[in-house]
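thread: overnight batch results

M.L. [08:02]
morning all. the overnight job finished for the chain we discussed friday. pasting input first so we're all looking at the same thing
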Amino acid sequence: MTHSAGKGEVRSRTGLVLSALLTGGMLLVTGSACSQPPPARSPEVLPQVEAPYDLAISKALDEVPRSEFVSLSLRPSDVRPTWLVRVADDTGSVRLVRVSATDGRLLGTSVPAGQSAGTKKGTAELVAAARVLPKEAVDKVKRPDFGKVSGMALHEGSGGQPVWSVTVALVEPLRERVYEVDAVTAEVLSSLTTGERSKNPDDHG
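M.L. [08:03]
and the structure it wrote out:
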């Protein structure tokens, strides 16, 4: 099953067994199959981002046939900011696709190390359990004037259900807000801004 996301088609049924940590305001996806160094604060590179998150997802899905979107993060670099997009096939095997955040060009594809049989099985199960599309999760929390999506990931919630983490960043003032959205019911579960848990998860502004 696929869904429209801006300039391309983004497939639904997304997922990866991972934990989400807030490091320097950015969502850091951890786990043997998805570990990466903590990125710098994304608002600092947002003015350079011309290729939005949904275009990067579409590029990654086109590059890896019959794959499903898993997670995405924005990585600064000396040359250009880069989208790191993870996609998985129906066995739960993950591929990492790098896409330029300035012009949408494909920069390369690799296979993250350390993907055990158990990790792949968990990924495939979480993919199957997710019902809410990435764009639907974003639409739940992002107003047009609020900022740009700088990260997304699907992880297992405290109740065992799939949960979307959506990071939305502002250029001025420099801040980010991370929302948790139930990937089955589309309910906004919580939000976190500059280190403080929002008392009202429906306060999206």
